[in-house]
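Lab notebook: predicted structure, single chain.

Context: the supervisor wants predicted structures on file for every construct in the current expression panel, including those that have not yet been purified. This is the next one on the list. No modifications to the sequence; it matches the entry in the shared construct table.
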Amino acid sequence: MRSPALALSALAALLAFNTPASAAWQGYISHTLGFAFAAPGDLKMGKTTYKGAVAGTRDAWTWTSTDDGIEYKAMVIDTTANAAQSATLLGEAEYIFQDGQKVLMDTFGRVDRHYGRKLSVDLPNNGGRKIACFYFVNGRIISLQASVPASGDVDSPELARFVDSITFYPERAADEDKELPLPK
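Prediction complete. Output recorded below exactly as produced.
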């Protein structure tokens, strides 16, 4: 009678040891750009080009990490030359994010006196899920985006944890938060 219970607990222990460990979450901050967030593992910095009908072609910086099949990306798009069109630029970035995808959630939000938007979409052809937030701060579009393929856990709370970690008060960052490197 104890044999099935013993076998079940041994199997549970074996599965616990074979489950990949998730990376520890770390706080990141950019005093220069005026925002902070938390993400798992170390971030890789990159530079890309953002293209929009209104924004035109703009430089963008990205910081990414991947954990448990989920890609976490912080992106800053330099739109300081068009800062007077902030509402239009923000709407354009949100539209580009959700274009051609099934929108699950589209809501306005406010973080530290900055209004923005949070969206969640299913990717075409059952390709997975993405969630993002967009804010316009100091002439720049700041976005946190998390995506998971269909083979991953599309209902993982870690996607929202990442997007909801954004703050625009650098003084709220912990002393151990890492300063984001800026592109040269």
